[in-house]
Give the backbone structure.
Amino acid sequence: MKSLRHRLLFAYAMVVLAFLYIPIVVLVLYSFNASRINAQWSGFTLDWYISVFQNRYVLEALYNSLTIGLIAMVVSTILGTMTALALHRYKFRWKGAIHSLVYLPILIPEIVMGLSLLVLFSQLAIPLGKLTVIIAHISFCISFVIIIVLARLEGLGREMEEAAQDLGATPWQTFRYVTFPMISPGVMAGALMAFTLSIDDFVISFFVAGPNSTTLPLYIYGMVKRGVSPEINALSTILILFIFLVTVALVILPERFRNRMGDKKTQRQMPF
Amino acid sequence: MSRGRMLAYPAIAWLLFFFLAPLVIVLFMSFLQRGTYGQIIYQFTVDNYIRFFEPLYLQILGDTLFMALLTTIICFLLGYPIAYQIARLQRNWQTLMLLLVMVPFWINFLIRSYAWVIILRSQGMVNTFLLDLGLIEQPLNLLYNFGAVLLGMVYGHLPFMILPIYVSLEQLDRRMIEAAYDLGATPIKTFFYVTLPQTLPGIIAGSILVFVSSLGMFVIPDIMGGAKSALIGNLIQNQFLSARDWPFGSALSIMLAILSLILIFLYYKALQAQQGKEDSR
């Protein structure tokens, strides 16, 4: 009885996973289809890939997306983690207001944030471009980092830190060897979230991007609005492949490496 | 040791300048007038807000709310079991499954919506398949309607729901579940009285993310819905980029922002009240 319930749950989870992946698989398959319009399979071709790689606008948009994403991730992860640590540890006179300020960018619709930044930049006469996109991305990433790191901090007790300090660790040592290892999954998750949100963002970029700061989502939107074409499939497939490779490189390989060095890792984690 | 407090200042300053200040400017602008050529006239008016209550705009608002609510509910129903299943797995499998859920999320939602266009359009995969089998004579209208937009919304927002629920399930105090079993609770009772209340923060977080994101969405209706299924996001975008009526667009955005904040507040209060009732039981 118990195992039946669990098997049903497992099957349900698999169906949801299939729902997540079927469109992606279809998209990839059709990037190799020789026919430009039809859904019928009319033979294998790489023509659409060749035409994507010969498109310099695509390469430029890719470069823009990556640089903007990296800068937004680094800045928002540093600022966000600092803020989460301070908010967790210290009392602030305006605590309620600060919390609202942190949560509001997540709660407010993206479109409102995008157009309000457009209004700000136009009032300050700042030309729209890469800088305005980066500023906008950092603004919405910070809150996510703060909340994710705070959640992690709140899940932990203060006992470990107090024990470290009782044993004579300086505040820096306490942070480096006790607090940071404990919150690092949260910081990593926050950074990953920030990068994901930045790369994925279309709405806010749509309002604050200028002619020289077209990101990939903006470029793809332009293509999609012009209609279905196998070039979009090819470009999408390249992006999907890229995401898979990055995932493998960032997550699976270091984990394997760490497992192999298992003994050394435990030693390193106990400096006192 | 108040020096540590300063760690929070850079981010707070950033948010004040690049988040709060722009909103205040938009609020001001919503009380201004639009000139004949789309320029802004600095004269106070509330016309932009009154215009919102015309039937055309109220209809769009209603459609938007209904769509966001349905999306949230369906995401929860689809997302909770998969989050639960992932949390039950061994560590290594958890990582793998989370990655499998996250990877489509990293693919841009424009691409994911476009993938559905390929599948659903009249010369698309589903219609071609059904026509070839002779099950239908004419291609079905699967795209550019309410259902298509809903499908795209659910598909685009599902990981937003799964991740926070997974995090709260992961942090679940398993001793409570064991205690419930020891005291003779059935698995279903244990789930509804122990697991579900304890994962409420995750459910709230996930629902808020999905609902708010759906409310302001304009790309999915733009790509999968055609002109008929315009939501409030499409209307706002139109005011800023094509109609060049920034004051009216500002008023619409302020309404949308206030509306989503009120709904979130009420929703949160309701859940809090419910939780309080259960605690005192």
Summary: The beta strands of chain B are 33-34, 40-41. Residues 160 and 209 of chain B are 6 Å apart (CA to CA). The mean pLDDT of chain B is 85. Chain B touches chain A through 87 residues (CB under 8 Å).
